[in-house]
Structure formats: C-alpha cells, structure tokens
Amino acid sequence: MKSALFYQSLIDVPDPDGLEEKYDRAFRTCEEIIYGTNESDLQGLMSSTVGNEKQQEDIMLALIYTILTDAEKANKAYSDLIILDGSSFATNNLAILVAEKYPKFNEIPRRQLLWFLNELIKNQVNVQETSNIVWNILRQASGGDISQKNIALVEGLLDILVEHRSWLEKDPFLVGTVVYTYTRLLEDHHGPQFSNLQKKEVSFVISLIRDRFGDVMQLGREFVRLLQNISRIPEFEALWKDILHNPKSLCPTFNGVLQLMQTKTSRRFLRSRLTPDVERKLHFLISNVKFGNQKRYQDWFQEKYFTTPESQSLRSDLIRFIIVSIHPTNDMLCSDIIPRWAVIGWLLTSCTNAVAQANAKLSLFYDWLFFQPLKDNIMNIEPGILVMYHSIKNHPLVSCTLLDFLCRIMKNFYPKEEEKVRAGIFNSLHIILEKQVIPNLMPLLESAKLDRELKSMLRENFREFFSSSDTGYSEPSWDNKLNISYNAATTDDLRFSDEEEDSAIMSMKDEHSDDDDLPLSKVIKMEKPIVQTIPEDIVQSLNSFVTTKTLDNIELLLELLNESSSLSLEQEAYVHEKIVSTLKQSLINYTIFPVSKSDESLSDSINNPIFGIFKLLYKEENGKSNIINLVSYIQKHIPCTGYLLLHYLKVYAKLQSRRKETLQGIFKSSVYTHFCNVIESKLEHQLKFDLDLLEKNDSHIFFWILPDLFKEYKQIMLNNGDLLSILIGAIDANNLRDIIFSVTQGKLVIFRSDGILQIIRDSLEFETFEQFCFWQLLQAHDIPLESFQDILPELDASRHAEALTYILLLLRNEKPSTDLVKCLLSRDSRNKADAFVISVLRCWCEEYEGKLSEIIANLLMSKYPQNSPNKRKRPLKSSPSQNCSPSSEQKYFTDLFALAAEDETSSTVGRRSTSSRGRKPPATKKELSASNNSKKSVENTLASDDSTDEDWSKQKTGKRRKKAISDSE
Questions:
Q1: Which of 43, 63, 142, 581, by CA, is between 20 and 30 Å from 368?
Q2: What backbone phi and psi angles, to 5 degrees, belong to 581?
Q3: Quick check: 175 pLDDT over 60?
Q4: Short-list 498, 506, 542, CA closest to 526
Q5: 686 burial class (0-12, 13-18, 19+ CB within 10 angstroms)?
C-alpha cells in the first residue's frame, strides 16, 4: 500500500530507522477502529488497552497520521487525540517526525502540518514541546531556496507566528530564532514575485525586533552580519540608523553595534540555518571522507544544493556553521580526514556569485574582527589562516584575494571602530603564532606569488609582524599533518545529529550552559529533557506554580529551592527558565500602581508572584546562593525587576508604618543595594536604568517613589544630571506642582549648592518646557545666586533664551555686587549691545543707582589704575579711566565715563577741601543738579542704543515697556 504521508521513489532504500513504516503500519492497523467509533466507543477502546502500551501508541500514531494526511477528517482526529490525553505524545513525536522526515512529506502532509501546529498553539497545548516543533519547522525553511515548496512553508509559518505573536513572545529563545531565521530568509526574497511575502516578513520582523530587542540582543555578532545583507530595505535602513545613533531607543541596556559585535552568537542559532539533512551530509564529509577522495562528494553536494543562483547564499551559512560548530579533536586534526579549511576553500572557490563570494569571505574572517584571546576560541580563527597558508603554493589567487580582503576590511567594516577591528585581527594573528597553528607568517606575507601592490598593502597594515618575524624563512612543507597542540583536549568524536537519541528535542538554555566551546555531540546531548533528574518535590511545586501563577505557590517553591543544594547547573537552568517564563505571563496586563492608597489597594499592588522573590530577599538580605542566582536570572530576562523591587520597598514600608511597626516601617534601601550587587551592576547605573524604564512604563509609580529615593540615596540622586534629565522629561504641570509643594515643605531636596553650576550647564540642552520646569524647581530650593553666577558669561542670547530669562527675573530681586557686575560685564556682546546686561542694569538703576555707579566706577578704575596714586593730579580734559579705555568702549559708554570722571574730580576736590576731621562738605544745589543730570544721561545712553530699543520693544512687559520707551524719549 502506498503511503499517504511519505513520498517514496523507485530507488529509495528502506527506511533505516523504521519511522516511516511505524506510522504506516499503525494507521493500517487502527484505520477501521478510528473511522468506525464514536467518542464513547473510543474511550472504551482505550480503557480496554490499559496496560498495553503498544496498542495505545498505535492508536495515537494513527490519529497523527490521519491529521497529517486527511484534511476532512483532521478535526475529528485532533479532538479524539485530545480526548485520549495524547497531546504530550503527539507533540514529542511530531517534533521528531518534522526533524527527521519532513523532506519526504507529500504535499498534503506539508500543508496539514501547519494546520496541526496552528491548532496546538491556539489551544496552548504543551507550550514548550510546541516551541520545539516550531524550532524544527524553522530549520526546514532553507536559506537559498526559492522553490514553491519552501516559499509555501516560509509564508505559512509566518502567518501562524503573526496570528499568535503573544504566544511566541513568551519564549525569548524562540523569538531570537524567529528573528534570526526570517532576517536571513529576507536576503533571498528580493524578486518582484516575492513582493507581498517580503512586505509581510519586513513588517513582522521589524516589529518583533523593535518590541523585543532585549531578546534579539542574544543573537550577537551574527545578527549584525545578517542585517548588513538587507540594509537597503528602507525599514531596516531606519533600524540601522537607530542601532548606530540611537541605541537606547531600542533597549535601555543596548549600547550600540560594538556591544553586539563583542557578543558571541550561540551555535544553536547558526545550526538553525541548516536543514537536518544538510547538517548530516556536512558532518559526513568532514568526519568520514579522506583528504584527496573528497571530489565526488563535493560534486554530489554541489549538484544537490548549489544548482540555482539563489542557492549561492547558502555558502555563508555553511562556512559559519563549520567554523563555529564543528571543532574536531586533535586526533582528527592529525588524521587523513579532510580538514575544515579544505572544505571551506572548496566552498569559496566554487562560488559563482560575486556578492555571495564577498559574504563568504566575510563569514570566514568574521571572528577575527573583534577577537579577544581570553574569551574567544582559537578554533574559530584557525580555518581562515590555514586556507591562506595552504593555498599560497598551488592556488595563490585564493590566498591573494583573502589577504587583500583582510587588509581592506580593517578600514571598511566599521570605520568608527577601526582601531578595535585592527586590534581584533592583530590579536588573532598573535595567538595563531603563539599556539603554533602555523610556524611562520612570512610564507604568506612575503610570498613571491603576491603582486607588488598587495605586498605594499600588507607591509602597511601588518608592519609589526614584518619587524617581529624572522625573514629568513624556509618554504613550508605543505603537510596537512601538523602537530596540532592548540585544540582543547577531548576524546569525543564528531557524530551526526541523527545518531543522537531524541536529537529533535530542542530546549532553551541560559548562560550557565554556554555550549560554544563544547563538541557538538555534547551540545546535542545537552538538549535532552532534564526534568526527570530534578528532585520530585521541586518538580511538583514548580508545576503547581506554572499552573496557578500565584504568590503562595512561588513562596513554597522558593522555600524548597532555598533548602536544596544539590541542583546542577543544567537543573538550575531548567527551573529558572520555567519560573521566569511563568512570571512573564503573570505580568501581562498586571496593574501595579494602586488605585488608592488604602491598605487593601497597596497590598493588591504587590500580590504578583514576582514580589514573592522580593519578600524573601527582604527577609534574608544577604540571601542564599540558590535565590541569588535566581534573582540574577530574573533580572536578565525581566528588565523591570529593579523598579518593581523599588515599588515593593515603598509599599512594604508604608504598610508597616501604618501598622505601627515603626522600627521596621522604613524604606529598606540596603535591599536594593544588595540587589545591585547580586546582578553585578553599580548602584548608580542600575538606579538610572530602573528609573528610566519605570518612567517610560508607569510615570505614576515613578513620581510616587521619587521622594523616598532622593531621601535614601542622597549621594547619588542630588545634583545627578542623568536622573534629573529623566525627571524633567517626564514632568507635567501637576507633577511640577506636587514636587514644588514637597520641596517648599522640606520633604524633598533635589539640588544642593555644590556642583549646581554643572547641572545648569547640562540643563541648557533641555527643551523649552523642560527648562521652564527646571528653573521653577531650582527657584523653589532657594539656591543662592552666588553658587551659579559664573554661568553668566557663558550664556548666549540666541541659544539660551530660557536661562537668561529666568536669571534676569532672579537678578531683579538681587542687590548689585562687585562679583555680579563683573560677571555681567564679562559677557561677550559680539560687537552689539547686550540686551540682557542692559535690562539688568536698568532694573538696578531704579533702586540702587548710587551703589551701581560706585561699583562700575571702581571696576573701571581697578582695570585701568592711575600711574601714581599718591602723586598730585593735574587738571585733565578727561578722566584717566577714559583715557586708558579702548575707543570702542568709549563710544558705547560715553556718559558712563563722564560720570566716572565727575566722581573722580569730586573725590579729589573733596580731599583738598576737607577739614582735619575728614568730613566732606555738603554738596551745593548746582552739584546735585549736575550729578542727577549725569545719572539720567547714563540711563538715556542705555535706552537710546538702536539694537537695545529693538530687542526691548519685542518684550511684552506692560508698564515696564511703556516706561522704557518714555525714558528713551
């Protein structure tokens, strides 16, 4: 009987693992039973098979077979499967079936697979196992393949992910895999026939990247490589601009391209871009084929996977996978098996597309660019040097093009960080020589087969390697069997993924299971479920919490974890991932800010399960290692953890104080400090991060807990420009009112005199309304003007209008002092009269005219003193101050100098005519009249300047404006 599930050709060999036969046989055995029974009969049948696992398994396999092969009967079969409680069996077997047999699916099963997946997601069936199915289906969406079957799979899966995006976002690892996959596939979908598909892909991927950038950051440097290939798509071009120039808009913890480039990409993401079939063939080539006998295998591979122009892009995926994921043992490196560098050399030289070839070269050297010897693996840079070293003799063109590419990429990959790229490449070469990957660089750098221009370029870019190397080298032996001593010692053999039990099951790991330096066979073994190895009481408590998501259940779970000390890193990672996944779900649509400040509302606001973590942290401030590790893991995956802790401390303190527990009813700031130590973040940096995130998510809580933070963290919060920027950016009229009320009542202090000058300088970059709020807050603090008067010479009338306006209003209520006037007269007027200075002087002239005249006269006299103060003066036509002043100053302040001259003369006459008691005779009416006229002349001079009149006339200041105009007249 021909199988409706699997395609079989005439030359197909029998299924070696019997998987196809198992499904076909089960369906034939149970076909009559399935189609001829109703729900009750089916349940009775299942009851009669209790104890016979083989019969139960056959029935469920037959139902899966029916769902995949018969669209009309799929609904009934799916319902029967759920009734028989076969969902877990179905998801586990379906994941394996997709991983191992998808290429042999007929057309109908391919479509029904997506229908089956949609039903599982829609009904929230075995979420983790369903995620494994999605991961395996993503692997089947091959890069470089634009056949109708592959496009149907890509688009069908995309539609499901778009429809069930909320389900997808619950799994950070799956989010990263989806973004990585579709970012890579977009490179192939550029033709007009894919316009609709590309629009859907771009819309979905861009939205997912921007909304979930915290999950996307785990993709690391490989994500940057993929983005470069699609950077001309407008939406991705805009994303690039944000990554380069505004990284914080994507994620508060994201600092830019350099952060991604210094983050290793887990091999699991690279593995996701090869179908299981390609992975098996590649492993066979590198672990079984002898060097020299590889041509027929390479020809077969070429015919199978590289027949179309689009398929050339697959070469980069293969090169990256070989470099990062396949690390042979020392025994294999010294054997006659084909080495990695030879396979990569073939992939490079057989490429027929210029763009694909450039991308393949970048893939070869990608780990060189930011290589850090203490963090990165030498096996990731070994193939690049060996391809060039072994090609220089018989294939010099390969070595020449790679050397040329290496020189040019140093300057052109990331010009802003050219020095870091250069340092990464130099680090790579240094460790290559140190570990004796090759004996000497000179066979490459000074080979006679290099042209003159390339030699010159190499000397320019690798000068230190020329000077430090022995130029008297001998020709290399070109023997592949080098004495390899740089590979990590291991006895593990390379094996195929299909030889591993349950290789299709993929579960998410965290940073504790960093697999990048392990043999791939170990990585695949690590992917087995480990829940069976965890103590039963912890598993039961964990399952209860996952099901109920209540505060009580997580408290019970935390007690068990606190008492347990036997969990391995893998077990701990599994438990932590389950807890975090559940906490994320519990926080969806959870309202934290209390509706009122009643005890009941406050208690409800800290009733979410995540506050159980904080309660334990509060009680045991130093904490046990199990809980500390959990807190650190939660913070990394739930960024709002920090500000939720601040909210908890505020509420808990308030509730305790109302219950008259005054000794404990305080904001326990030491708990938050301990939290920062646990997550290895500086208190100031974490406080800024949490407040910034809190303001964006819930400004009500932000302003509610703000007074406590200024009280508890004075050293950090007072005069903190970064935190002030967050505060000012969030403020509105009501918040401003409440804060000023708190300041004036002495409940809140935001500024102090020391260091206020720099804060004012920073505030000059604020928006107009923000500066308005800033100066209102500053004025409420009664900061003395002397603390920031030195800012006056720095303020520019055209750029700092807000600051000048508020300082002018402050100066109106100040008495003129020598220091203040000196700061005013030190301002750069740029060859024009300074309206600000003139306005201040006019205000002071009304009340302090005598004092102001004396200050200005003293300043001018101190600036240009007489040659001999004790020498008797001769009658002069003008004062010494006036004679010593530049003509430009005399032009603007003619009457002012006249007043100074009069004061000097009066002073001299007075000294000559005073009695022995030193009293000055009373002024005559004539002298008083002259003095008043002179002072009015100063005012007239200030008011009659053309530019001053123009600026003054623009101000709408009511009576003051009318008075100024009448004075000038």
A1: 142
A2: -60, -40
A3: yes
A4: 506
A5: buried
Of residues 897 and 202, more confidence is placed in 202
Tell me the pLDDT of the chain averaged across its residues.
Answer: 78
pLDDT computed for residue 933 by the predictor = 47
Mean pLDDT value of segment 108-119: 93
The pLDDT of residue 548: 85
Query: For the CA atoms of the chain, what is the radius of gyration?
Result: 39
**Quick one: average pLDDT of 203-221?**
93
Structure-block tokens of residue 779: 């004025």
Scanning the structure block, which residue is given the tokens 């010294």?
334
- Residue 435 β-bridge partners: none
105 backbone dihedrals φ, ψ, rounded to 5°? -65, 140
The CB density around residue 912, as the number of other CB atoms within 10 Å, is: 7
Residue 922: which of 932, 936, 933, 910 has the closest Cα? 910
d(CA 544, CA 737): 48
**Conformational region of residue 37, where left means phi above 0, alpha means psi within -120 to 50, and beta covers everything else:** beta
- 732: tokens are 């509105």
Of 204, 240, 201, the closest CA to residue 224 belongs to 240
Sign of the dihedral defined by the CA atoms of residues 753, 755, 759, 761, in that order: positive
Find the angle CA(823)-CA(828)-CA(834) to the nearest 5 degrees: 85
Q: Residue 568: its pLDDT value, please?
A: 74
Integer Cα distance of 845 and 932 in angstroms: 12
| Those residues with Cβ within 8 angstroms of residue 687's Cβ, 6 or more apart along the chain or in another chain | 676, 709, 713, 716, 717, 723
In whole angstroms, give the CA distance from residue 24 to residue 69: 11
What span, in angstroms and rounded, lies between the C-alpha atoms of 608 and 592? 9
What is the rounded CA–CA span in Å between residue 406 and residue 368?
Answer: 9
Cα–Cα distance, 356 to 302 (Å, whole number): 15
- pLDDT, tens only, 938-967: 444 344 444 434 443 333 333 333 343 344
User: Is this structure's pTM higher than 0.85?
Assistant: no
589 CA to centre of own chain: 24
Distance CA 310, CA 524 (A): 30
Q: In the predicted model, is pLDDT for residue 142 greater than 90?
A: yes
Cα angle 621-626-630, degrees, rounded to a multiple of 5: 85
Residues 6+ apart with CB under 8 A from 477: none
List the one residue out of 489, 522, 574, 573 whose CA is nearest residue 267.
522
Judge contact between 290 and 336, C-beta under 8 A.
yes
Cα separations in angstroms, 665 against 154, 600, 619? 58, 17, 13
Specify whether the CB–CB gap between 626 and 567 falls below 8 A: yes
User: Tokens 């006459």 appear where?
Assistant: 909
Of 646, 666, 665, 668, nearest in space to 656 by CA: 665
Output the 3-class SS for 250-275.
CCCCCCCHHHHHCCCCCHHHHHCCCC
Residue ranges of E strands in 448-540: none
What are 384's two structure tokens? 């690049």
pLDDT surpasses 80 at 294 = yes
In the chain, count of helices (H) and strands (E)? 53, 0
pLDDT of 936 strictly over 70: no
What single string gives the DSSP state of each residue in 789-800?
GGGGGG--TTT-
Answer for the pair 224, 257: CB distance below 8 angstroms, yes or no.
yes
pLDDT in tens, 397-411: 999 999 999 999 998
d(CA 832, CA 848): 25
